[in-house]
Amino acid sequence: MDVDTDFREAADTRSRADRQPTPSASGLPPVLTFRDVLAGPSADRNTPGVLWPDFDSQTHARLWRRNRAVCTRPEIDGSNPVIVTDPGMFVSMYDNHFGHMVAETVPRLPQSLVEAPDMPLCFTCDRPMRVDQTSGMFRSVLGWLDVPPEQVRLIHEPTMFRELHVAVQAEYLDGPPPLQGYLDLLEARIGHKIDPVRPEGITFVTREGLAPQKGRHAAESYLTACLKELGVRIVHPEALPLPDQMQIYASSRYLVFSEGSAAHGRQLLGRVDQHISILRRRYRSQLAMNQLQPRCASLSYVPSFGGSLHVADEWGKKIRHAMASLYAVAPVLAHFEALGVPLRRVWDNETYLRLRDEDVLEWVKRMYRSDIQPWLKPYNTDAYLLDQFEPLGLGHLRARAAALIGASRPPVASVHPAAAQKVPPPPPPQPPATQAPGTDLRRSTIALRGERGIDLFARIMEPGQMRPGFRCIATLVGQGAEARLHLYRHALIPHIRVLTGVAAEAQNDPVLAARFSLFDPEGWPQPGGADPSRIVQYHDLIAAWQVADAVARRFLARLEHRPDGLLAEPGALVSGIGPLHDFNRLTLGVQAARLLEPVLAKRLDTRQPLGEATESTGQALRLLDDLCTRAGEAELARACRALAARIEA
């Protein structure tokens, strides 16, 4: 199948007499050229969807973050790809997040546009899509760089490029400063869009207009109102066209950001004689430090972080981007006073505290709404959040916060993963024509005899993956009236009866319980003896189990013989412990905890830093805490939990 006509048309129609003169791309690594490259759909930022030759050894072609290549090898069905014979320039996956697009996608564009001005610009995506169907943010960023829409190609199916080019990612998140050659190209690209004015005045870029669950300082609206009263220019970036934002940024002598993605917007400009400061919402954050410093006269981070409230996801990991942060008020006042803004003159602390409390309670309400995005849903116990109030000086709000949480959750005694819930006998099967509550859950849940009872697994499809995965969501221990269901996700509490029924049906199914030989097809389950779709599900589960088991055992062998090597690799612990947690491998989880706990404890006692692996190590310990709790190893679970707390402090 040959569809390179679009690519030729882009070259034929892309003759622009008004193109701005641009300098040479000298100083940047040359654009790379590859032959016969397979690309495909991508819904995952860390899997851009291009299978580069010698993938693991590629550098410039892959996605970089925190001084290392972070993208993973994609799985693409290359049996019948679309063939593109004309050359293309790969840029990135289609990203709908402003901060990531500006920090990780844009840095490939200036060089691409200079060295191959007429070549189609290729973005991978997860579904058929026209350029006019992409987000307004995506189109506005491309428009800022004068990228014609007709030059953009969105790749949503397996595609073989006979010739594919890619420019270096000239800067990236938490990476080194950009090369001066990149800033030269960027300035030449956008310089004519900025009115040549001398920077003056003070601008505060606020997050107050964003929804509470997107993360912001409590009572930021009060700070904004005080600054506005004192003549500071206030910018709500989400309410302004991108060119207007850029003009304001470029014309400000002092540019102050509330920490967030808007600060990455400053990367769309080059060098301006101005002073940039960022009010921290996270502990010791240095957001975009190496990217902003070369673009301004000075850069500072105001120690305005006064603690935060947060919930955890289903892995026990803090949802940091959605925290409710508190101000350390004194540094905020001092910073604006140093800029010549007499903030103390109008600041009323009683008003601030009242509005702070209101914002905190509104954040609690929003985080526990039933319609919140899945990646923001709290999976922790109520106490997990409520116990944070007293140390932050918010103890007087605990009861009101508990009432807000209680109003959004079904009444239960406990929701901790290890807290057993007594359940009644399963209900009688529903007639086929009846769509009872939980029908979809019944069909998508699969039961397997585990180490402590019957484990129940959810079948999941991760973005960018070609085969299903599985995750243990509950365990049924005991039988009949004595059965107790251990739930590992709070959202499943309303479905206790359905899950119990799934476990009972599987336990009593003679076909599923029969022993059989993989070598002898005569002994394989037959569709006549069980639901054919269930047999297919079990087939997928067996395959996933075997892969996870191999990964887990290799991980344990490495942990036993060279634990320091694993500790030096960001994400290595999570990738090894994750399969144990997914499949509820209690014995292997306890084994991993016993091997890892003393090594980590010694490392922390001797103050050896974990560097880039800090966050993923804390996440891995949370998973081991959960596995040890399920296995009844309370002391070992507490030790893992304590280590995680020390690492995350």
Short structural description:
The chain is α/β, with parallel strands linked by helices.
Describe this structure in words.
This protein is α/β, with parallel strands linked by helices and 649 residues long. It folds into 3 domains: 5-175, no CATH class; 194-408, no CATH class; 543-648, no CATH class. 37% of the residues lie in helices and 15% in strands. Strand 20 (454-460) and strand 21 (469-477) form a beta hairpin. Helix 18 packs antiparallel against helix 20 and helix 21 packs across helix 23. It is globular, with a radius of gyration of 28 Å. The model is unreliable at 1-24 and 411-439 (pLDDT under 50). Residues 98-264 form the Glycosyltransferase 61 catalytic domain. Residues 1-31, 415-442 are annotated as: Disordered.
Give the radius of gyration. Answer: 28 Å
**Parts with pLDDT < 50 across at least 5 consecutive residues:** 1-24, 411-439
Mean pLDDT: 85
Report the span from N to C terminus.
56 Å
Strand content: 15-25%
Structural class, please?
alpha/beta
Q: How many strand units?
A: 22
Helix content: 25-40%
Overall, the morphology is: globular
Count helical runs: 23
Q: How many domains would you count in the coordinates? A: 3
Largest sheet: 7 strands, mixed
Protein name: Glycosyltransferase 61 catalytic domain-containing protein
Biased composition (Basic and acidic residues): 1-19
Organism: Pararhodobacter aggregans
Domain Glycosyltransferase 61 catalytic: 98-264
